[in-house]
UniProtKB/TrEMBL annotation:
InterPro entries given in the database record: HATPase_C_sf, HATPase_dom, His_kinase_dom, PAC, PAS, PAS-assoc_C, PAS-like_dom_sf, PAS_fold_3
Major localization listed first in the record, in broad terms: cytoplasm
Protein name as annotated: Oxygen sensor histidine kinase NreB
Cofactor: [4Fe-4S] cluster
Taxon lineage: Bacteria, Pseudomonadati, Pseudomonadota, Gammaproteobacteria, Oceanospirillales
GO cellular component, as recorded: cytoplasm; membrane
Alphabetical keyword list: 4Fe-4S, Coiled coil, Cytoplasm, Iron, Iron-sulfur, Kinase, Metal-binding, Phosphoprotein, Transferase
Organism expressing this protein natively: Modicisalibacter xianhensis
Record's function text: Member of the two-component regulatory system NreB/NreC involved in the control of dissimilatory nitrate/nitrite reduction in response to oxygen. NreB functions as a direct oxygen sensor histidine kinase which is autophosphorylated, in the absence of oxygen, probably at the conserved histidine residue, and transfers its phosphate group probably to a conserved aspartate residue of NreC. NreB/NreC activates the expression of the nitrate (narGHJI) and nitrite (nir) reductase operons, as well as the putative nitrate transporter gene narT.
Transmembrane segments: none
Domain Histidine kinase: 694-785
Domain PAS, residue spans: 185-227, 308-378, 445-515
Coiled coil start-end: 168-195
GO terms, molecular function: 4 iron, 4 sulfur cluster binding; metal ion binding; phosphorelay sensor kinase activity; protein dimerization activity
Reactions it catalyzes: ATP + protein L-histidine = ADP + protein N-phospho-L-histidine
């Protein structure tokens, strides 16, 4: 855009949004060309007029324009936006307000398609304008806005928030309803005071008794005369050891207006003791109510049950078997002494499902499944499994559990035992081992046969547990031409491409050491064609019942055609990069040889005209010509810089490190971005097409730092190994949120194109960023083409 056009646009914006408010200022500063509306000078007269009126209006308004309903609003509407401001200015309405799109969509359709107007009074909406859902009410009007030709291009919405009014009305209604409920509550309380099983006591915040029903007086043995004289309080009826619990309840009452129900023991005037369950709440500033239930009989029954259980546990500790008890859900609540002595667990460690830790790891999941199934169905549990001794050894036990039920058939608890059967089980195992030894050979042969059938369409091979060939592989020898003696001697590496021997051998040894499946890509000699061909090798371990590796079975799949196709894609990507660079050079050449020369010639002509005008004393015209000459100087400087930006000459003659040093200077001088460049001193040369691609990627990433990171410095690190080139671009700027990282890698800031171009040449890009902690981009690309062509003159390594 020329300076004249720019000045015209700024003048238009200033006249359109001339108000002094915040939104008028934001509208003047906003780059509208980055919104769906485009630059302001491209707006229709209607849009300009209505937008100016909306921004200047004191009433809360918002204008929605175009097919995407782009938002323009004023200062009065600013409060409605909440935290969505100022991002919502110039934003499509659906993106800004997705939470109310279902309500708005049919209204917008009626206005735009049929020219209808709508009014809603006290409309309830759930908005997320302050980062969390909130209920709000509005009186809304939706009116169509037609362009000069009568076509409806926009919607004018007036918005009056009535949330406070509506909620005040709702509060008044709730108050009236609360008063009615209070009167009803008083009536119910009066009836409650007559209940004969619940004591009711009213007291003040100093614990002085104010009023009580007859039930409470009967429980405590107190008289109504003493109550009416105000002589009674909590300390008179509570045993000293229970007063701390009483004061804690008072503190909770003062803090929360109620206290958690609790039990305590009390003393009657005649010296007898009784137990009560207390719950209370604060009624007013100095009045509280407490409800009391006499639980003396329950506590006595509980004590008797405790004594009975203690006698049972004492007897159970004398039994030589391991005994235990569980609740109705199967959670263990008690184990006897024999359990703790044998397993080494404490009673607390065995509680719940902690006892399961003593089961042998290979059997634990099965035992737990059977046990939980028995608990769910209420049937007897019986199982044989190994349990860990305190010394770490394992022994076999017969474990049984039975449910104990009440008269209604409901399970009250479970009782179980574990009987030592280790000696019997060892005898049975020895017998089974004798049978297993005679059948193992047949079982191994059957398993190998099954795997061979599964992989019969590939190169098939097998080894022992140490990775040595255990039998002949006709398919391997048919593919490679290797002799059977060499294969059985473990010299399979002899027919592997020399560059692939070390990585494939390392991968194979890792799998043998860890027992994890083997997978690797390497080139094998193809005897029939006399070429090296790429294959995918996969191997799986054959294990016995306890996880020991008995041997390995595997296949090699010919993937040479796939690798050829991948290399062709990389070659095409490189050609595309070079074609793009060549086009840049061509455009740069046109700018330099044609346009700049014309501008120089025009500048010379203007100087001649200026000199003539000065001689003719036409100073005004001479000044105008001088101004024009100045603009031409700017145009020459711009085209000169554009020539360099399109095709930096250094890319043609120097290496990537020199090109990045040139880019470092350009970013500092032209864009104010200070770039720290870290590169190896001596780097081998790389192909021009890859050099051009990497230069363009680094330049694009540095432009992103300047535009979006909010900092004026960045770091570029360049490393080169024998096979790969690594580039790291880092800044300490604004960064990106974690939830937006995947979206940025796919579509943001042109990075999707960068990622795809890298993939086509076998490279990768990783973005590491967090909001407020900068961004780091890691690029890794092979700098030598992968060798996939089959050299027709290659010699089979087995025929020296």
């Amino acid at each position: 855009m020329s300076p004249t056009d720019h000045a015209h646009r700024q003048d238009l914006i200033a006249r359109l949004f001339r108000d002094e408010g915040e939104l008028a200022r934001l509208c003047r500063e906003k780059d509208w060309s980055q919104t769906p509306l485009g630059p302001v000078d491209s707006w229709s007269p209607t849009l300009r007029t209505v937008a100016g009126l909306v921004v200047a209006s004191p009433a809360p308004m918002i204008l929605l324009w175009g097919s995407q309903l782009v938002q323009i609003y004023n200062d009065s509407y600013r409060k409605v936006m909440g935290n969505k401001h100022p991002q919502g200015l110039g934003q499509p309405n659906r993106i800004c307000w997705p939470e109310v799109w279902e309500f708005n969509a049919p209204i917008y359709a009626g206005v735009l398609e049929r020219g209808e107007s709508f009014t809603f009074e006290n409309q309830r909406l759930i908005l997320e304008r302050n980062d969390s859902p909130e209920e709000a009410y509005f009186t809304l009007t939706f009116s169509p806005v037609a362009d000069g030709d009568g076509r409806i291009d926009g919607i004018l919405v007036t918005v009056l928030e009535t949330t406070e009014t509506v909620k005040r009305r709702q509060a008044e209604d709730a108050l009236r309803e609360s008063e009615a409920r209070y009167r009803e509550s008083e009536r119910r309380i009066a009836h409650a005071l007559e209940i004969e099983t619940v004591g009711v006591l009213f007291f003040d915040m100093q614990s002085t008794f104010l009023e009580a029903n007859d039930t409470f007086l009967r429980m405590t043995g107190l008289t109504r005369d003493a109550l009416q004289r105000g002589e009674l309080n909590s300390e008179m009826v509570t045993l000293p050891e229970w007063m701390p619990s009483t004061w804690r309840a008072f503190d909770e009452l003062k803090s929360n207006g109620r206290f958690t129900p609790y039990e305590k023991e009390l003393l009657r005037p005649d010296g007898s003791r009784w137990w009560g369950l207390f719950a209370g709440a604060q009624l007013s500033q100095n009045e509280c109510v407490e409800f009391v239930i006499d639980i003396t009989a329950h506590k006595r029954a509980e004590q008797a049950r405790y004594e009975s259980e203690a006698r049972f546990h004492a007897i159970a500790d004398l039994v030589p078997d391991m005994l235990w008890q569980a609740d109705p859900e199967g959670q263990r609540v008690w184990v006897n002494r024999r359990w703790m002595e044998y397993t080494g667990q404490s009673s607390q460690e065995a509680i719940g499902y902690g006892w399961a830790e003593t089961i042998h790891p290979h059997e634990r999941s099965t035992v737990l499944y059977k046990y939980r199934r028995a608990v769910e169905t209420g049937v007897r549990f019986r199982n044989e499994h190994r349990m860990r001794h305190a010394d770490g050894s394992y022994g076999w036990f017969l474990v049984e559990a039975v449910p104990i039920c009440n008269d209604d058939g409901e399970i009250l608890h479970w009782f179980g035992s574990a009987n030592d059967i280790h000696d019997q089980r060892m005898t049975m195992d020895r017998l089974e081992d004798l049978v297993a030894e005679r059948t193992q050979s047949l079982a191994d042969s059957e398993e190998r046969f099954r795997l061979l059938v599964t992989t019969s369409a590939q190169i098939i091979w097998s080894t022992d547990a140490q990775g040595c060939a255990s039998e002949d592989s006709p398919s391997w020898r048919a593919f490679t031409g290797q002799r059977v003696d060499d294969w059985l001697a473990g010299r399979w590496q002899d027919v592997v491409h020399p560059e692939d021997v070390t990585p494939s051998e390392q991968a194979w040894q890792r799998s043998i050491g860890t027992g994890k499946p083997f997978e690797a890509e390497y080139r094998l000699w193809h005897a029939r064609s006399g070429h090296w061909r790429w294959t995918m090798a996969r191997g799986i371990p054959l294990c016995d019942g306890v996880g020991r590796t008995l041997g390995w079975f595997g296949t090699n799949t010919d993937i040479d055609e796939r690798k050829r196709a991948e290399e062709e894609v990389r070659r095409m990507a490189c050609s595309l990069t070079m074609a793009e660079q060549e086009e840049r050079r061509r455009v740069s050449q046109i700018l330099h040889d044609d346009l700049q020369q014309l501008l120089y010639a025009l500048q010379l002509k203007l100087r001649m005209v200026s000199n003539r005008l000065i001689l003719d004393r036409q100073r005004t015209l001479a000044d105008m010509v001088a101004d024009t000459s100045g603009l031409i100087n700017q145009a020459i400087a711009t085209t000169r810089q554009l020539t360099v930006d399109l095709s930096p000459p250094i890319l043609k003659t120097e290496g990537l490190g020199d090109a990045l040093e040139w880019l470092q200077r350009q970013m500092r001088e032209l864009h104010g971005l200070d770039v720290q460049l870290l590169a190896q001193r001596a780097m081998p040369p790389i192909d021009e097409d890859l050099r051009v691609l990497l230069f363009q990627i680094v330049r694009e990433l540095l432009f992103n730092v300047k535009k979006h990171a909010g900092v004026d410095h960045a770091t570029v690190e360049l490393k080169q190994s024998d096979t790969h080139l690594a580039i790291h671009v880092e800044d300490e700027g604004l960064g990106i949120p974690l939830q937006a990282k995947d979206t940025l890698q796919e579509s943001g800031f042109g990075l999707s194109s960068v990622k795809e171009r890298l993939r086509q040449v076998g490279g990768t890009m990783k973005i590491d960023s967090a909001e407020g902690h900068g961004m780091r981009v890691h690029i890794r690309v092979p700098w030598r083409p992968m060798q996939t062509d089959n050299d027709t003159e290659a010699k089979w390594p087995g025929n020296d």
